[in-house]
Amino acid sequence: MNTALHPAARQRRRLRGACLLASATSVAALVWSAPAAAQQQDPGSLQNSTTSQPAAPQPAVPATANTTSASEAGQPQDTATAPDASQGNSVGSDSPGQDIIVTGLRGSLQRNLDIKRTSSGVVDVISAEDIGKFPDSNVAASLQRLPGVSIQRSGSRGEPTGISVRGFGGDFNTTLYDGRRISTATGGRQIDFSTVGVDFIGQLSVFKTPDVSLASSSIGATVNIQFPNPFDHPGFRVAATGSGSYQDRAKNVVPTGGLLISSTSANEKFGVLADVIYTRRDTDTNRVYVSGWPGGFFAPCQLTPSCTAAQLAPANKTLAGWFPQQYGAEQQRVEDERVDARVSLQYHPTDDLMVTLDNNFSRQNITQENYAFGVWFNQSDLRNVKLDENGTAVNFTQAGSPTDFTAALNKQILQTNQTGLNVKYDANEHLTLEADAAYAKSWLNPGNVIGSLNGDIGYGGNLGNTLNFAISGDSKDAFPSISNYGPAGNAAQWANQAVIGSHVTVNQTQHNTDELYQFRGNVTWKQDDLTIKAGGQYYQDTYDFRNQSTFTNNFWQAYAGYGGPSGRTTGISPLPASLYQGSISLNDFIPGFKGTLPPSVFKFSPVAYQNYLSSLGNPYAQNIPGFNYPSPTSGDGLLGFRGAFDEAVDPGSILNVRERTWSLYLNVNFKTELGGLPFTFNAGVRNETTNLRAIGQGRLPTSIVTSAADPTLLSIPTYTPIQAVTNKSSYSYLLPSVDAKLELTDNVILRFDASRTLTRPGLNLLTPVLNVGNGQRVNALSASGGNPNLRPYLADNFDLGAEWYYQRNSYLAVNFFLKNVSNFVVGGVTRQPINGVIDPTTGQPASFAVSQQVNGPDATVRGVELALQQVFGGSGFGFQANATFVNTNRPYDDKDISQSGFAVTGLANSANFVGFYDKAGFQFRAALNWRDKYLLQFGQNQNTGSFGSEPTFVNQSFQIDLTSSYDINSHFSVFAEALNINNNQQSTHGRYSNQLLDVFDYGRRYTVGARVRF
């Protein structure tokens, strides 16, 4: 096709575009007035130059990892896909034959725009400025700069760990490494972005409309992370980075370092690349928490100081309301260590053949020390209750409240290894054949690691206090206050070691593996303006779960009771003074938040605490005062305790899921003219067939007994025999996709996209058994069950957008989207008896809060994305700004107390602004990120209420990050970074905004480092 236009025709097209844009916003008008001429730099600038060479360097691999031919894959990044003047990259008619080469940040931004502009579908891209120089220190942090993308942070670390795209987070987004799925042992299908080393990533591509040859298994987006290969940069290359990081509360400098070496042979037939990155982050985080707001019914007498047993009968409980299950504060000290490594070997004997063998490895080791206090509430024990207009218990007292001080040593090791082989062969100038195979395995807590090792001490019984709880304000700026704390209400004795004794001892570990085999083969035919691609993929994903804990064998209650000062015959008190290592002040614990806390929490080692209890010996070889001796006929697991707090495997947690998926796809892309205007049409279809097998181990309780050590504790000593349960299911879906792009003028593009995509339910939801754990508490009996017959979420997606590339490295875009989603997985909580067991505290059939999932209702999500990027001529200044507005026809209804309540999670308006300066080797960026309040999930840490699965909302957040770098010369640069300089705090709440669940204060982080490139 001849795309050349007569100058007069070109001018007419420009005039038509100008008329279409005449009603643009005032912001767009302001941008139009900015300099649009050639962006030439001052002489001697390292960042811009005018040259007769091709325009801005382009990546050898564009937006997908499997669209290039073998010859294109073997070309260096600076020549493989360089755009010509017809793409709007020339300096203008006054400089014929000259193009602008821009490197650094602006060069990266221009490459991103070129890929977005030429793509058939809706794609956003972030590319490295140079090898070893990615814009951000975290993948998710980079992605949040894109329109429609927001991040989720780990509360304890403040690190971005996941993303939401157009309101869809978690498993709704698929992440690929070089076009391949990556295994993850975390329990879902999403990856933790904090496990991905960012230093040597080449490019991130976010596909908001599907590429059927890549994947159609994400309703949110598909994220493709592309890593470097030796022939991306032929010759010998070395890149190294080193930095020190300092968090203002942890107050110690920790290192990060990386090294990349790449080389190709003199005859350009062989290439090898290897890199390794070590990353360390230390974070001290202050947290105030409420572990759930269960819903239930109060008796009217509970609004007064006292109640009789008759008044508390179930028939008299008529007032619907919510109360805090547990309240406390803790300091979390986290050490996050990660090693990433990659090896890539390439064989390129001819221009027609490229063979790539690569291996990606990562291992993240998170060690967390927690020091906390906590108080437990039972709804029936609350008095002087004041309910607000929504039914939230905003003030109450509880007599006899025990107080616990806890210390925990938590460890999580996540290790992943993936090996892949890719072969591309150009059979002739039109036909390319590709085969790709990969094997990946991921482990959660491999070996003998204990995931959480806990020590719990405190006082109760005779020393229990009539504690007062009061809500101090809204969860966005206040946490609850407690008063009348301390032994028997004596606040001056709050931390008196003489009255403190041993309580429960909980160890628990989740061991998971995820093993993934995958193969892809496709054929691509390119001729003139027509491209046809056909192929197929096969995945086999096998997931194994296993949880072990001291709940299972009931060893957690071995020395429960608090000891003699609390009036108990069980528990050890006082504890050796050598166990205490000081205290942490709770004064001004969460700066800027209202609320009252007790004065301090203890620092003590849970390892030393458990070792001390174990050193007392075998309680069945000698009498040990304070041991919780069970009745010989109770069947209690404590009959097997011999001094060590060994974990036991919970049979109900064992799950094996094997998922096999076969896919066939066909994609046709052609370019033509529509009404004399360039028109690109892309149509594809993908058929996916999935077979599932889920194997679990089922058992049901046959009795429940109370604990002699603590009246709030229960245990299940006996179960029915264990039975293996197997369930098989299958489903098949046809997933079409259409993309249309019309170029109204040289610089104005209209897009329309329609597709069907799916998201499979998390593998951890597919267990075929009901699991009733042994560790139970009074009035908080719980159980969980899966559903192996869950079907995928299905979405019919529509996009309509316009993009205006009004000058080099600048554009304005608006994109409307609509998603009709069916088969939503609803995680409800119902109250029900199990196997007829009796609750010993009531004498009635036990009522368990059972969490289960079913495919539920449909919903529509709609929204608009606005994006603006502006570079101000040769000044070096520029900015990126975007905003996303999204809503749904199924918002959350806080008045619905049915157990099957439903709403779309993750939806929130968001906005991002990045202002930058990039000139003469100096670069500075200020990033402002805002996200409105949103519904994160259904479910809370303690979700044992009568009104179904209670919600968790995340309050709005606003964070400011600063980064800067300076190129001392072409090989050496220094950089600095300041994150969260406005000390943004993350807070969540329950059904109503005054039901605080968590507030995390994770402080600021500063980094200084250097990069070397040869």
Helix content: under 10%
Alpha plus pi helix count: 6
Mean pLDDT: 86
Uncertain stretches: 1-65, 78-100
**What structural class do you assign from the helix and strand content?**
mainly beta
Q: Report strand %.
A: over 45%
* Overall 3D shape: globular
**How is the biggest beta sheet arranged?**
29 strands, antiparallel
Distance between the termini: 43 Å
Radius of gyration: 31 Å
Work out the number of β strands.
54
Domain TonB-dependent receptor plug: 116-220
Region (Disordered): 39-101
Keywords: Cell outer membrane, Membrane, Receptor, Signal, TonB box, Transmembrane, Transmembrane beta strand, Transport
Biased composition (Polar residues): 39-48, 69-96
Task: Give an overview of the whole structure.
By secondary structure, the protein is mainly beta. Helix content is 5%, strand content 49%. The protein is built from six helices and 54 strands. A hairpin with a 4-residue loop joins strand 50 (957-967) and strand 51. The radius of gyration is 31 Å and the shape is globular. The protein starts with 6 loop residues before the first helix and ends with a strand.
